[in-house]
Amino acid sequence: MPEGDTVWQTAKRLHTALAGKVLHRSDLRVPKYATADLTGRTVLDVTPRGKHLLTRIEGGLTLHSHLRMDGSWKVYRNAERWTGGPAHQIRAILGTLDRTAVGYRLPVLELLRTADEHRAVGHLGPDLLGPDWDPDLALANLRSDPARPLGEALLDQRNLAGIGNVYKSELCFLLRVTPWLPVGALPQDRAALLPALAQKLLEANRDRPVRNTTGLRPHDLFVYGRAPRPCLRCTTPIRAGDQGDGSRERPTYWCPTCQQGPAPAPGTPRATRPRPRRRTPD
């Protein structure tokens, strides 16, 4: 699933292509909005909110989209061939005189009154890349359920908005605890560092074409996707397991030497682990 930095980059591309321009083509390929026509209206701005995209349009309308696992927005010059996928995967087309934005495989696409945006994003916690970022509130939200595993709490967008599975694993490594450690067991000094560290990682990567959390090349990430390669700190093989985000199991990576706290036993079959009961909002 795209994380906050990726969504921020997508919003920037869409804003550059569409903002201040009149729509000459509008096609929303979902049944509820199939007859909606936005042509003749000016795109005012495209704003990211956590993992959500808000395309605000003249007349008090907002096109809300969410990429989830497979969605994407592509921007093309009007003579350019579209390459984001087959035509049946297109869910939205917004075209100006010189650019066309095409939304592929968008699982969430809805047309709202701008005044009703809270219906789509009002549940979100402070946005790590947004003007509403509040580190104290983010930490208080995380601590509100001290028994909850830290990795699951980080993925819950009600606590803080923008962290996905990659940053969850990397943050836990940098904090030297496993993603299964209960939030309440996180040492005070490391808990105090968490919000600023999370924001630092996303801000550092919001303009990068390749995400990097290590400051090293060619090793862009400390643990995510690196099992069973050696840890960059201690050379212990990185382990992989599953951890729920409240809606489904997700691959999780950690170093059993550098990170303290509970973790699945080596060799535990993924399918036998209980699924979490909470649902983590996007």
TrEMBL record:
<feature type="compositionally biased region" description="Basic residues">
    <location>
        <begin position="272"/>
        <end position="282"/>
    </location>
</feature>
<feature type="domain" description="Formamidopyrimidine-DNA glycosylase catalytic">
    <location>
        <begin position="2"/>
        <end position="103"/>
    </location>
</feature>
<feature type="region of interest" description="Disordered">
    <location>
        <begin position="236"/>
        <end position="282"/>
    </location>
</feature>
<dbReference type="InterPro" id="IPR012319">
    <property type="entry name" value="FPG_cat"/>
</dbReference>
<dbReference type="Pfam" id="PF06831">
    <property type="entry name" value="H2TH"/>
</dbReference>
<keyword id="KW-0863">Zinc-finger</keyword>
<keyword id="KW-0238">DNA-binding</keyword>
<dbReference type="Pfam" id="PF01149">
    <property type="entry name" value="Fapy_DNA_glyco"/>
</dbReference>
<comment type="similarity">
    <text>Belongs to the FPG family.</text>
</comment>
<keyword id="KW-0234">DNA repair</keyword>
<dbReference type="InterPro" id="IPR000214">
    <property type="entry name" value="Znf_DNA_glyclase/AP_lyase"/>
</dbReference>
<keyword id="KW-0326">Glycosidase</keyword>
<keyword id="KW-0378">Hydrolase</keyword>
<dbReference type="InterPro" id="IPR010979">
    <property type="entry name" value="Ribosomal_uS13-like_H2TH"/>
</dbReference>
<keyword id="KW-0456">Lyase</keyword>
<keyword id="KW-0479">Metal-binding</keyword>
<keyword id="KW-0227">DNA damage</keyword>
<keyword id="KW-0862">Zinc</keyword>
<keyword id="KW-0511">Multifunctional enzyme</keyword>
<dbReference type="InterPro" id="IPR035937">
    <property type="entry name" value="FPG_N"/>
</dbReference>
<dbReference type="InterPro" id="IPR044090">
    <property type="entry name" value="Nei2_N"/>
</dbReference>
<dbReference type="InterPro" id="IPR015886">
    <property type="entry name" value="H2TH_FPG"/>
</dbReference>
<feature type="domain" description="FPG-type">
    <location>
        <begin position="222"/>
        <end position="260"/>
    </location>
</feature>
<protein>
    <recommendedName>
        <fullName>DNA-(apurinic or apyrimidinic site) lyase</fullName>
        <ecNumber>4.2.99.18</ecNumber>
    </recommendedName>
</protein>
